[in-house]
Amino acid sequence: MLTLGSAKDYRWPVSVRLATDGGRFENFEFVAVFKRLPQGRLDEISAAMAGDDEEGAAITDGDLVREVLVGWDKVRDVDGSEVPFNSDTLAQALDVPGVRLGLVHSWFESLAVGKRKN
Asked: Is 15 helix (H, G, I), strand (E, B) or coil?
């Protein structure tokens, strides 16, 4: 049963691939809490990202993340302590190369309709 207006946000896994020593990459995973946007806003974001926005307003990956990310789980500091979600820690996370891309990719993935089996 679909209940309209029930869930304001949802949790979705995020995988971030970061460069490490020796020319290798390491995957880091955490859980993003994304705001559920109305379809009208999704259409506006899509138009802005495609350059089809009538007002010519572009949206960057950082702008998008700041709009849709409202929390996280399983984000830790170097000492292993949980990092609280706030504007300062979000800015710190977005400054790490690869984090924005991982968040944007996961958000778009969360909006995609899964593949159907034939």
From this structure: strand
